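Cross-check.
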Amino acid sequence: MDFKLWLEFEQIDPGNWDNQNECCNINIDLLNGKLYGLNVWTYKFLETTIKLDQDSGENLKGIYQIPPDLFVKELTRECISKTIEDLLKKGELEEVLNPTIIIG
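Predicted model, tokenized:
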């Protein structure tokens, strides 16, 4: 299925993102008119978030995390495109991931 991706790291301060240890927002625009908004974290960013919460005391000092919509290996167009392609093969994104990601 064809889709368009808007990637925050390409639009906001490009070149200054740690693609291995970061989070971002993405929009997925399907040709059928559906629009999705996702919060995406790298695997490494989960570790970073836990450490930040341990230091700040948030989330009971890091004993829990409210997860993003999607984890990926790295924040690159290639990685995210392949991931979305694979997820779309499995079904509607609001069913495969969660219903809150659909925004239009």
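The chain has one domain: 3-101. Helices lie at 8-11, 43-56, 58-62, 77-90, 93-96. Passed to J.P. for a second look.
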